[in-house]
Amino acid sequence: MILLSGTINGLTLVFSLAALVLGTGASYLIWQQALKNKSRKIISEAETEAEVIKKEKILQAKEKFLQLKAEHEKVINEKNSRIALAENRIKQRELTLSQKIEEAQRRKNEADSIRDNLTAQMELLERKNEELSKLHRQQVDQLEAISGLSAEEARNHLIESLKEEAKTGAMSYINEILDEAKMTANKEAKRIVLQTIQRVAAENAIENAVTVFHIESDEMKGRIIGREGRNIRALEAATGVEIIVDDTPEAIVLSAFDPIRREVARLALHQLVTDGRIHPARIEEIVEKTKKQVEEEILEVGKRTTIDLGIHGLHPELIRLVGKMKYRSSYGQNLLMHSREVANLASIMAAELGLNPKLAKRAGLLHDIGKVPDDEPELPHAILGMKMAEKYKEKPEICNAIGSHHDETEMTTLIAPIVQVCDAISGARPGARREVVESYIKRLKELESLALQYPGVMKTYAIQAGRELRVIVGAEKVTDREAENLSFEIARKIQNEMTYPGQIKITVIRETRAVNYAK
After folding, report:
1. Which residues make beta-bridge pairs with 135?
2. Are 459 and 469 in contact (CB under 8 A)?
3. I want to staple 311 with a disulfide (CB 3.0 to 4.6 A). Which of 26, 156, 268, 306 is the partner?
4. 3-class SS at 294?
């Protein structure tokens, strides 16, 4: 409206000036009238436009109101639907709960009925037991009156009369069972074991705690030692191996209990001697490269072993641990060769017995996996190996065979005793393992002293490298039947109290000698 007034005033001024210029009053009136008409027209158009804008705004406000109302009704409908759904669920739960309460009440009524029936039956049984006890007592009284002995006296007399006969009969029965078992099971077992051993040829590798590194000349020893011993100290610190440089011609001794460390030191020393550049920085670089090479070789050995044995699907970490077995030994027997031998023996034996040879071979290969962990937890190697196999998702049969091959867990499958037997066969065969002289002599003395504890034993001799024990008894102190019992008892005591490879044969010798002298 302010703009419109300004426009009118402007037009008035313009027309006034025009009238003055023209100088006529009539013209001024005409222009005055035209100006008024023009202003009324502009005011009319402005009012019309304002009315249109007003209607549009009202329509927009109505549309916005209807839109908000629709959205509000939609939200209310959704809330109502959710409330209705929740009410339906609650009703359903109430119905289910009432059904369960009715079922529980019905079962309770049935249980009460059954309990009442059982109570009545128990009362009836008690009455019958009382009647039977009275009848039994009457019969016992009649028998005591007829025999002239009380029941306790008759029982003791019968026990004493049958004790010796029962003992003799039981031992005779045991001997008959053993003889029959030897004729059947022992023959078949020997056939399976011998056939299994004959079909497996294993390479024996004896691992020591030292490795001898040969050099071309003794001049190289000085370069390996370095100025003030810095090279040899750097090499020992990097490898963890004690390096002994003495007067031995053209040889350096690498000493460590860990065969992997000794191998890393040997290979690193070989590269350093071949290259000729020997200084602490070069030593550290070569040792790191050699460790990576040995780790790659371990993986390659593990993969090649599983491929050779036809074992598939092993976890990569188990394959790496199998490769590490190459650098471990047990009683002088290379662990990888021992595990391969056990795997082949177990596979053949399982096939002979109609079991799964693949499972047996897999368990045989992994049975000593607990001897080569990266860390050294305080657990027996069989239990540790079982836990590692469980960790890497091996089958329960294999895990049980690993954990029970030293009887540290209960055997639950038929594969477990096969692996245990094959482990004993591989370790007990002649030449498989080395035994310390002191422990060997101690075991022989324990064998002989154990048999000497029995009455009637005069002398004992451990022969065949401790695999046979001969016991000499006095003929006047021990009968033939007692000699059989003695061999059985000695064998059982050795089995329960001693640890030994393979088996021990106990032979009891009883002889009568008649000696006279001709003078």
Report:
1. none
2. no
3. 306
4. helix
Q: Dihedral of CA 129/130/134/135: which sign?
A: negative
* Structure token pair of residue 58: 């009202």
Query: pLDDT tens digit string along 97-148?
Result: 999 999 999 888 888 888 888 888 888 888 888 888 888 888 877 777 776 6
- Taking the C-alpha atoms of residue 472 and residue 495, their distance in angstroms, rounded to an integer, is 20
Q: Indicate the residue type of 212.
A: V
DSSP class per residue in 117-170: HHHHHHHHHHHHHHHHHHHHHHHHHHHHHHHSS-HHHHHHHHHHHHHHHHHHHH
Cβ-proximal residues to 311 (8 Å cutoff; 6+ apart), any chain: 343, 358, 361, 362, 365
Report strand pairing: 468-473 vs 505-510. parallel
Has residue 15 got a pLDDT over 80? no
Q: What is the DSSP string of 193-261?
A: HHHHHHT---------SEEEEE-S-THHHHHHH-GGGHHHHHHHHHH--EEE--SSTTEEEEE-S-HHH
Q: Between the CA atoms of 439, 499, 357 and 300, what dihedral angle is there, to the nearest 10 degrees?
A: -30
The sign of the dihedral angle between the CA atoms of 365, 366, 367, 369 is positive
Count the alpha carbons within 13 Å of 125 in the hemisphere toward its beta carbon: 6
Pair 244, 253: CB distance under 8 Å: yes
DSSP 477: T
DSSP labels for 187-211?
HHHHHHHHHHHHT---------SEE
- Could you tell me which of 336, 415, 420, 410 has the C-alpha nearest to residue 371? 336
pLDDT tens column, 147-205: 666 667 767 766 776 776 666 666 667 777 767 766 676 666 666 666 565 555 444 33
Q: What is the pLDDT of residue 430?
A: 47
Give CA angle at 79 (74, 82), nearest 5°.
125
Give the Cβ contact number of residue 344 at 10 Å: 23
Written as one letter, the residue type at 382 is A
DSSP character string of 411-450: --SSHHHHHHHHHHHHHHSTTSS---HHHHHHHHHHHHHH
CA–CA separation, 15 and 477 (whole Å): 166
pLDDT at position 250: 73
Q: What angle do CA 399, 405, 409 make, to 5 degrees?
A: 70
Measured CA to CA, the distance from residue 498 to residue 506 in angstroms comes to 14
Backbone angles phi, psi at 312, to 5 degrees: -125, 160
Nearest to 235 by CA among 268, 258, 270, 257: 268
Neighbours of 84 (CB within 10 A): 10
List residues bridging with 214 in a β-sheet. 251
